[in-house]
Structure formats: C-alpha cells, structure tokens
Amino acid sequence: MEVRVSGLHDIDAWDGFARDNGASVFHSHSWGDVIEHTFNYKRIYLLAEEESKVEGILPLFYLKKIFTPKRLVSLPVSDLGGPVGTPNAVSELIESAQQLMVDLSCEFIELKGPIIEKDYFVGEKYSTFLLDVPDSEDDLLKVIGKKNRNLVRKAIKNGVKIEQCTDLSDVAFFWDVYAETMKQLGTPPYPKSFYENILKFMVKGGRASILLAKKEDVVLGGAIFLRFGETMYYLAGVTPHRNQNLSPNNLLVYTGLKIAQKSGLKTFDFGRTRREGVFNFKKSWGGTPKELPYYYKALNPDKKVSSSKITSLAPLWRKLIPLPASKILGPPLRAHFGF
Fold first, then answer.
1. Backbone phi, then psi, for 63, in 5-degree steps?
2. Residue 13, CA distances (Å) to 9, 40, 117, 178, 204 in order
3. What is the pLDDT of residue 88?
4. Where are the domains of the chain?
C-alpha cells in the first residue's frame, strides 16, 4: 500500500472513488477548491493506492494562524471529513496523517468522521437528520408533516418566491442577509468570497444551488444546497428575525427538497447542528437523526486539545458589535478558527 499526496491529475479518480464509496460532498475536489481559494489554508490530500488502484482517500488542510494552534483538519469549514476506504487503507492514511502532524509540528489532528483508533478521543459532538427523498412531490408533501406544509403554503400565499443565484450580484444579496443573520446569532460571518467561490466552483458545475427568498424585490433570506452522489446537503439557511414571520426558511428548504426529488437523489442531509437553535427546525422535517462526532489526536498526549471554537464570543458579538463592523472584522476572525 502506497500513500502519497494527490495532484491535479488525480481529480477524476479521487472524486470517482469518493462517489463510489459513500464519501460526502465535503470530500470532493470542488469543495476543496472552495476552501483553498477562500481561506488560503494549505491543502494536503492523501491518496492510498494498491497496484495503482485507489483504495482510500483522506482530505486534509494545514491551518497555521496567529490566534489558534497549528493543526491538520479533515475538514475545516465542513460538516464532515475523515478517511474513506478499505480498513487497511484507512489505517495507512491515518498513520501518514500522524507523521505529517509530527513533520509540521502541529498540536493536533481533527477528523470529522468515524474512525477506529483507540488513541483518538471524541471532542465536538453534532447531529444531523437524514431524510429519504420520496419519488413524487405528493409523497414529499406527506413526509414533511402538517406544520411545514402549512408554513410553506403561508409563504407562498404571502407572495414569497424563490430564485436561483446565478451571478456575483445575487451572491451579494445572499451575503447581506447571511451576515445579518450571523450577527443576530452572535457568530462572525464567513467572507463573501466563500459564497462567490461556491458559485464559481460548484454552482456553475451543477454541484450546488444558492437560493434567494424574495417578496417583490426585497430579499428575505437564502439557502445553499450541495449535491454529491445521491445526496443533497443543506449547507446553510439564513433569514433575519425581521423576515421570519413570512416563513421563507420553510419555503427554501421545501424548494431544496423538490430539487432533490426532481433530480432523482435518494437522501437529503440537513447538515450539522448542536442540540439547540435550529435543531428542532431540522428535526421537524421528519429525517432520521445521526450523530456526527469529531475526533482528535494531540502531538503531545499530555496536553489538552482545544478545538478553538469561539462560541464564548457569541453574547459579545451579538450585543456589542455593530453589523457594519461585524462584516469587516468577522471574516478574518472566522478564518483563524477554521470552523
């Protein structure tokens, strides 16, 4: 078994292996392009081969920032990551990653996916909900439940319409409602370039949809859906408090589900969430819950690993940072933390 760093000539083989072996959209090369071009993290994608046949993959990024420890993450700014492949390949990939941790003097490795290694410990715990996508729209309306059906109809009755983002000006509208929503949640926003790169590397290749909910010419909210294999991923849904009475989020999610149904996809993944906030909103759509544990291994086993999340800043950010300042200060701060 040989483990090496993959190159541009490996893209088709990498993505083909990912699709055929149940990997997520976050394992795809196009998603790696989004991360690399937005945050300038160093990409180190490890490929395991046996007699020139791909047996496993492990996408990694090396994060070296001022305010946080040096680390290897699979994957930053993503719900999922970790190695995918045969048991032997996964073992070899993890061993190679651990050697990289030593060579780069990283404090720890973070893997966002199931691994079988006794010396890794579970840190962050998230959940998602997986919904089997019905074959027809009538069945879809039954699956989502009475409350969501009524709220979807309410949004339509109130004149809410959904439009696809097709250019940078559309993305700018999305980012404005996104940044306002993040401010209300107490979270620094990702840079606008993150969503511009989703448009560039994924929407234009048919691998994503960025949607806007509008009433007349006013943007109420937005949502992003990613596609890979037979799965649709709900990456983000944003609506500022002032617009929530029109239920644009419900119509946005329903539209994403319809796109999945019409595209013949089998699974709708509602994306990571803690047991708070939007947890109950995602749960209400009828999916099956699934845990998303994140695993860590420290270079120094006696040193406590910090995943360096900035949830403690939420009250300060929500109450004291004005929205214009949040748009300026938030993106570089968020990049330092890599989540």
1. -105, 120
2. 8, 24, 27, 35, 21
3. 94
4. 2-119, 128-291
Domains 2-119 and 128-291 share a fold: yes
Distance CA 286, CA 115 (A): 28
**Domain 128-291 adopts which CATH fold?**
Aminopeptidase (3.40.630)
> Which positions ≥6 away from 20 have C-beta within 8 Å?
none
Q: Which sign does the torsion angle of CA 108, 114, 120, 126 carry?
A: positive
- Residues 6 or more apart from 270 whose CB is under 8 A from it? 128, 129, 130, 131, 234, 282, 285, 287
Q: Where are the alpha helices (DSSP H) in the chain?
A: 11-20, 29-39, 87-103, 137-143, 145-157, 168-185, 192-201, 248-262, 279-283, 314-320, 323-337
CB atoms within 10 A of CB 244: 14
Residue 116's pLDDT band, with cuts at 50, 70 and 90, is: low
Is 3.40.630.30 the CATH number for 2-119?
yes
Summarised one tens digit per residue, pLDDT across range 132-183 is: 999 999 999 999 999 999 999 999 999 999 999 999 999 999 999 999 999 9
